[in-house]
Amino acid sequence: MSTKRIHNFNAGPAALPLPVLEEIQNSFLDFKGSGMSVTEISHRSKWFDEVINDAVERTKRLLKLDDNYEVLFIQGGASMQFCMIPMNFLTNGNTADYVNTGTWSTKAIKETEIQGKKINVVASSEDKNFSYIPENIDFNSEAAFAHITSNNTIKGTQWASFPDTKGVPIISDMSSDIMCRPLDVDKFGLIYAGAQKNIGPAGVCMVIIRKDMLEMVPDTIPSMLKYTTYSSKNSMYNTPPCFSIYTIHLVMKWLEETIGGLEKMEEINQNKAGILYNMFDSSDFYNGTAEKGSRSLMNVTFRLPNEELEAKFVKEALENEMGGLKGHRSVGGCRASIYNATSIDSINALVDFMKLFESKNG
Ligand SMILES: *Cc1c(COP(=O)(O)O)cnc(C)c1O
Questions:
Q1: Which of 259, 285, 319 is the last residue of a domain?
Q2: For the chain, which terminus, N or C, has the lower number of CB atoms within 10 Å?
Q3: Is the CB of 83 under 6 A from ligand 1?
Q4: Whose CA is closest to atom 14 on ligand 1?
């Protein structure tokens, strides 16, 4: 029986590299000669130790992290980080800067307010429906951290380069673009990413934290909500999401050994996104919604001339084995999420379909 696989443009959970899925399938019943599935073994076993340590080591190599940084795995998704960050770092009345570039930034800000923490929203692109990334932001040099969302999954914008925060550590939500390109990591005090966009299945958030940030964490926070708990126990204070971490380890292996690192990954991503954006720039039928200098490599958002055509486009795309092209329910329109695992073949298939659709409906 042949397996049906469609071109997957889902925003999250999203496409995973096919070789990773195949490796999971092949080793699912007997993991490394244990006679058990990876979902059946103890997280305290030597097998799982190897998995989690390999995931950490590969992450460090890919992002060129030195020993100042730790890689942690925490449950609760990126949304839990919205709450943990102010809880762990905004104590003793210190403040932080937040940049509001869309739905997820807004939610991060809301979680600081719920806790009564003092923050400054130093820039926002809400005036133009979050269609751009603000520039020339005046950050406060006394802030404990500056929070940004590096890629705005819903609005299709991405920071092309990271801002000068006057030495204040940046905390970035990289849920939808971690590992899409190399990083100048020194600027960052903490990076977090819900796995289900670009690096794995749902159920775990990767957190990269600089060691000096751990010194800010007070003892008075419940164990499961403080970074020091995860740091001191290699992310295994309690049972971690083993399967999700295992899959991340395979995705990191794929990035290193099959793709050849993040420079290479960025080149591929630039090429993939460029094909779609070039098409918008030469068409009156498809209009990109993000401003040119702020366009995302990962989530390509666009409109057709009217909503009827957009609905028809999404429906006919699926009939042609292209899924996930409907825009987020809060903004409408269309969106192609083209994460690391989305192949150039899928992009080419989409462009062919788009040209045909325009010729029939334009
Ligand atoms: C999807 C997403 C989130 C929410 O992630 P959860 O893991 O569902 O909490 C947060 N931030 C960004 C940028 C996202 O794309």
A1: 259
A2: N
A3: no
A4: 175
